[in-house]
Amino acid sequence: MMKKFAATGLAVAITTVAALSTGASEAQAKKWYWSPGAAAAGGFVAGAVIGSALAAPRYAPPPAYVEPGPVYYGPPEPWTPAWYEYCSSKYRTFNPETGYYFYRPGRARFCQ
């Protein structure tokens, strides 16, 4: 691919030199202080600049690592084995038959 762009740049330079050097007569060149050599050099420089710009490698930036955010889990679904284990370990007064625990004397709350 790089050779293709280099050849394109060279073709642009040659075309520019040919157009500039043959399009102006000797009298016009002297009037504008141009000579065929200056036109050729200008065309070569323009072609080299354009060709090197086209042939320059384009690198993509390396992918950035994005650390995944924390995952929060709520309490398990009621009446599952994980729920029984969770509520039993969290509340000493948990009653597995009713699903309630006592948070104050005489006050019960459903474990969620």
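the 2nd protein, sequnce then structure:
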Amino acid sequence: MTDSVPAVGWAIIVHGGAHEIPSGKEDASRAGVQAALQAGRQVLQDGGTAVEAVVAALRVLEDDPTFNAGYGSALNSDGTVEMDSALMDGATLDIGAVAGLAGVRHPSQVAHGLLREHEILLISEGASRYAAESGAELCRPEDLISPEQRQAFEQLAAQTPGGHDTVGCVALDLEGHLAAGTSTGGLEGQRAGRVGDSPLAGCGFYADDRMGAVALTGEGESLARMMTAARFLSGLPNHTPDDALQQVLEAMGARVGGTAGGIALTPGGEVGWWHTSPDMPVAYAHSSSDHIHVYTQKSQEQLNQDR
């Protein structure tokens, strides 16, 4: 099922990661994506750009330890935080992305600052140096570790990396421009220096005013191997966003394995989302309705009731 808005109007959708929500965290997950949606929605209602709306939504998710982004990021095998984030402007095809970033409150802010620079991706120390030069809010690396993530790291000893996913947002503004953004702390216990799909254009995200916008989440290596964002956009003209996402995510699972999810918008404002993981917190809204849609699963029954 999809929802659409008139060609002149705004739309926004956010997700909190494709994973199984731990018991007792359902309400926090719903509340978190709704708060992020409200932040981005306000920007669009006030006439702001899709890029600004995406950054506003991601900042809220990065401040919420319920999600694996910013404060509350997963710890790598060294017990430290390395964050990835990306932002893309569908009007200009400008990209700002960072990988292996440490000591920054909001990695999406750094990606935003890089958006109009010549470089599209900075990593590790270079990304941290740029964050300081651009006036990003810095912090001690350990300040990003929530008590819950510290406990998860301690319990992870001798286990394989766990699943803990990217957050994302896509938006359409009143000028008809699209934007997509991602932010993540990676996988619990991942090898230091590991980078998944989230900062890689065409893999974990993409935005083009002529084609659509998508932000993905899930098993990053699988998403990157399939160039999943690019495959989604190539199939979008002949399918609804839901159907196009379903097809590419199921194809990914069959070809290289792994579960994932995604959110998307067409240039005309059609909203879509799908996931092959057990859960994926999602919230979306558009200018043709005052209603805010909030889900943790892609349930057809829930969707039908909400319509």
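Confidence is low (pLDDT under 50) at residues 157-163, 303-307. The first strand starts at residue 11 and ends at 15.
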